[in-house]
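Per reviewer request, we include the raw input and output of the structure prediction for the construct analysed in the revised manuscript.
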Amino acid sequence: MALSPLFILYIVIVFSFLVTSIFMFKPKGNETVHIIFFWLAVALSCLVTFINATALPIEYTNKVIAAWCGLLFTAVGIIIRMIAGKTNSIANVLVMLSTVYGCAGYFLLN
């Protein structure tokens, strides 16, 4: 059985997500590391949402809209991060939740 390229891409994204999550919650120390990994998590979240939404056929309008709604978690996380001005666990969890939502949506909807 051959693995589809999209499935392999999701495996790579999930692995990257796990590494990013570990470094986002690494004990306090270097704020620059937290910032870099937060924005990497945002990028992964956007990538997962984009792939999830565009992999569905156009006639599945409700599922496509539900896939794009995953970015709402990321948007709220970014807003919280900008208001706090520093590392914020709630913002990190919201961005992680968006990535998990996108991955779960791909595996459940496709």
